[in-house]
Structure prediction request, 346 residues.
Amino acid sequence: MTARIVARGVATLVLTAGLGLAGARAVDAASTSSPAPTSAPTTAPNALTLATLKERCNVAVQRRLGTLSADGTFVKHAAGLTSTDRTTLASQISADQQGLTALDLTIQGDTSFQQAHVDCQRIVTDYRVYVLEDPTIHETIAGDGITKVNSTLDVLIPELQTLIDNSSVSATIKAEAQADLNDLTGKVNASSTSISGVTSSVINLSPAGWPGDQVVLKSAAQNIKTARADLAGAREDVNHILQLLGE
Amino acid sequence: MINGTAFRNGMLGVLAAVAVAGCGATRLSNAADSTSVTAPSGAATQTPGVTPSAVPSAAPISGQVPQQINSIDSQLSTIDAQISAANAGLSTSEGDPSQ
Prediction:
């Protein structure tokens, strides 16, 4: 296993453990790039028979179905997801699950190695579960979550202002708390700017748009990271304000 | 000749002013003792996944503030897990199912 595959496994274990689920998902044998559409071999390579090919393709489908099932659980329980995005992601997952299941049946029914090989490649080209659908789901959940935190902080800020205004601490301490609150406000605004349009940019990406989709996903990931960093600073400001006020 | 009542009232006012000044000095001292020396962060870039430090409460915060803070912390944990999962996906390949 490569380090990347281990990282995916660890991340999944953390997530599934957090939701009380057991098990981890595996990925196909690593390759440096997705298989390019080429003419399928008409005869089986040395040790690869039609039956073996079908079995491998079935395993590949089952692994992806497992990933999609886990993602479906995340989508179902993610408190920060908007109802619209939850419905969209759930529909995409369901469609992929049905499509992959149907494709697996097709592969198992293929009578030639060539046809089975062509159909097997569609597991990648028509779905791109690992590199597209799965990251899209996680980025959408993260993006909506950041938006929700921004909204909660927007409600919290005037309450903190009231605490500062009504506090009996000295003018100097109040000024320091006010500076923190101003910084907090700035960070929330910055976070909102960074996350604006991020989820909408990724949620409807499709396998047909690959490899261009990858650029969009990476850009979204960077914006999410930037927004999250601002929220970390905002959270520290909240702590400091409350400490200054003796709350 | 100084009016006795006015003089008495003036002295009472002086005593009251001294008492108020003394209370203010005491409050300032207490506030300074409880002030955290941690400077507020001004940089836009922070380390994600920072665990919020415990907030010492000298008096319970009224209203929805604690509930909102708990909601924020819970959501930030979820966000961090999703970011990690997304990054893992961006670092992997789809593989070759026939292999």
User: Anything to note?
Assistant: Chain A has eight helices and no strands. Chain A touches chain B through 90 residues (CB under 8 Å). The helical segments of chain A are 3-18, 50-77, 83-109, 113-125, 129-166, 171-195, 198-202, 212-245. The first helix of chain A runs from residue 3 to 18.
